[in-house]
Amino acid sequence: MTERLQELFGQLERITNVQDIAYHRIKEGKLSPVLKTKTDHLGNEKWKSVHAASPVFVEDDQLLREIVRNPRPIYVQDVKNDPRSAEEFFLFGIDSILILPVAEGSVVRGIVVVASIGQLHSFTDEEVRQAERLVEQYREILLG
């Protein structure tokens, strides 16, 4: 699974030019980190330890509530100036973010996050469409 996730992350990076990409499962109403790209900004172990110290609950996060109720991609071009931005975005130093749901039927079981850290990124409609198609192609692996 790790190898296939890294393959997905590489394709998402080629589409968006954003390097910090992660997959979280949703378990017991909170995010459960699975795998993240290794970057200078934030490595996999630090990412998991921050999540362990500061759990992210779906009901406490406006964007996660929205994506669970209406499974479609959501993006925030400028985290610092968007009122929907979650505390966790600031914890991880995220400037722009694309969140892609991984659904089983109508139930969201996880999310793929493309996070621009250290600079703003304007996600285009085409990037979002391509990323959504890719995540759908990898859905079985992500749900595995």
Description:
It contains six helices and five strands; from the N terminus they run H-E-E-H-H-E-H-E-E-H-H. By secondary structure, it is of the alpha+beta class. It has a five-stranded antiparallel beta sheet. The protein has a single domain (2-143), classed as Beta-Lactamase. The protein is globular, with a radius of gyration of 14 Å. Strand 1 and strand 2 form a beta hairpin.
Per-chain topology:
Blueprint: H1 2-16, E1 20-27, E2 30-36, H2 44-53, H3 62-69, E3 74-76, H4 87-91, E4 94-104, E5 107-117, H5 125-137, H6 139-143
Antiparallel strand pairs: 1-2, 1-5, 3-4, 4-5
Helix pairs in contact: 1-5
Poorly predicted runs are none
Strand content: 25-35%
Number of helices: 6
Question: What is the 3D shape?
Answer: globular
What value does the average pLDDT take? Answer: 93
Order of helices and strands: HEEHHEHEEHH
CATH class category name = Alpha Beta
Biggest sheet details: 5 strands, antiparallel
- Count of the domains: 1
Q: What's the count of strands? A: 5
CATH superfamily heading: GAF domain
> Helicity range of the residues?
25-40%
Structural class: alpha+beta
CATH architecture: 2-Layer Sandwich
Strands in their spatial order, largest beta sheet: 2-1-5-4-3
How far apart the termini lie comes to 8 Å
Gyration radius, rounded:
14 Å
List keywords for this structure.
single chain; 144 residues; alpha+beta; Beta-Lactamase; 5-stranded antiparallel sheet; 6 helices; GAF domain-containing protein
